[in-house]
Amino acid sequence: MTSRFWYVLGLDGATWPERALFGVTMTAMVALAAFGFARPSALSTALNGAFDWVLTYFGWWFILLGFVLLLLVFGVTFSRYGRLRIGGPDAEPEFDTLSWLSMVFTVGFGASILIWGVGEPISIVQNPPPQPYPVEGASIESLALAFMFVHEAFPGLAMWYLPVALAFGIIVYTQGVGEYKVSSMLSGIVDADSYPGFHWAVDLAAIVASIGGIATTLGFSSQTMAAILSGVFGMEANFLTYGIFALIGAVFLTDVWLGLRKGIRNAARATMLFIVAAMALLVVVGPTLFIFELGLDATGVWLGNMTRLMLYTDPMSAGNWAANWTGFWWAWWAAWSIFVGSFVARVSKGRTIREMFVVLVIAPAFLSWLQHLIIGGWVLSPEYVAPVSEAWAANGIPAAIATALNITPYGTVLAVLFVFVIAGYIITSLDSAVFMISAITLGDEDPNARNRAWWGALLAGFGMMALELESFEAIEALSPILALPFTVFLVAVVYASYVAARDYADSHSGVDVDPGSLLSEQDRASDVPPADDD
């Protein structure tokens, strides 16, 4: 009977520390979700209070840590270590370039581009930073969009995902040290046999932070989907959204059993097609001229003042404006960095570190910049900004998105595309998150489907629980609250990856260097499937 119980949970063959990791995390998160269903008002109040405390006292820490990680990323990528190949000199790419980019992009963003592409510019225009503005002479509309570019295009992308991807890629795949766990990346500086409790705590913090990041995105997505269905189509929002979540859950479970190549890859490709269709329609039916004029002006503000915007804290003014924006974003990125970084390392075997920089930073930053340029120009245009702002002030970001769709020509068509994009992001985010959370729990890069399904059920439950919370702001709190403990371990992980890269490069000098150009056809075209995923 006992062995059957562990088999159902996907923990047959797992060690007792791994079973304890699953049990402790699952119990705590189920209790939190149950409390949210039972007493949403009390949970909202608690989350909002914790959110204010974390960003008031630790917003500076997230901003500083992001800057340090950015310097490290550039140092590793453009030094001799940048030519190290993930998996060793003979490793071959598992995925073609399009599939690779699609998975990295859709997994790494969730639905935040649509949600915050409307929400952040509108919020900043209505509640701008204290005077004087951080960029003299810039309009508040251009400044708002420039902050959006900083937070979700560059340098946000480079700061958080790549350090964890490099650590996993170098230590787990290239150097071949330890199991597929976050704690394995510390093996070069902290001995697991001497300090097993420390390694277990690192994995616990990583899983909890990952759950916080994905739960935040699922919460945003579920409330936005409900607002679109209610505000645009006049449907019973929550009931229908639960039904859509059930359908998404069925697709997700199908993906779990199909595995990495057939499941996550195909969902990512489909989502990319819906994104392209939505953005193309928005350019055609929206305020096209204003979109590109504002976008170019904001791009100039962004590129000309990137360091200033990235490190802006305004310590002389009252309040925590910078911490509530940049601090929140960096905390969210930190929460997502564990499962996105480890997932990227998983699908990047056979690629060099510099190729990872191109596909994880440069290409997604360009795509994100273009989408935010279009979405931001749409809602900040003179004929849209007033009604969208009124909806935002009255009922939050989801209502602002629904209002923008209602006053846009062919808005119902655009709303359908938005729902498909959000659903696609939910599926790919759930797929990748449970894949990596399960992998970290079991120490196996290809975890069994049974264990992944349990984690997926937990995360989907968080997404539905978010529909019960009273405020959109309460959902924001999950990322910084749950990510804060992990940031301490993240510093150690980054240092350990540098030590591993240095030692491996020194011992394999001239062997694992890729003399060819980035993404060359000769050694990147391989798309031969491996043995069946679970």
UniProtKB/TrEMBL annotation:
Domain of life (superkingdom): Archaea
Membrane-protein topology: Multi-pass membrane protein
GO molecular function: transmembrane transporter activity
GO-annotated cellular components: plasma membrane
Name this protein carries in UniProt: Compatible solute transport protein (Probable substrate choline/glycine betaine)
UniProt keyword Transmembrane helix, yes or no: yes
Main location: membrane
Organism lineage string: Archaea, Methanobacteriati, Methanobacteriota, Stenosarchaea group, Halobacteria
Keywords: Cell membrane, Membrane, Transmembrane, Transmembrane helix, Transport
Annotated localization: Cell membrane
Species for this entry: Halobacterium hubeiense
Location of region: Disordered: 507-534
Parts of the chain that traverse the membrane: 20-38, 58-78, 98-119, 158-177, 198-220, 240-260, 272-292, 327-345, 357-379, 414-440, 452-469, 481-501
Gene coding for it: opuD
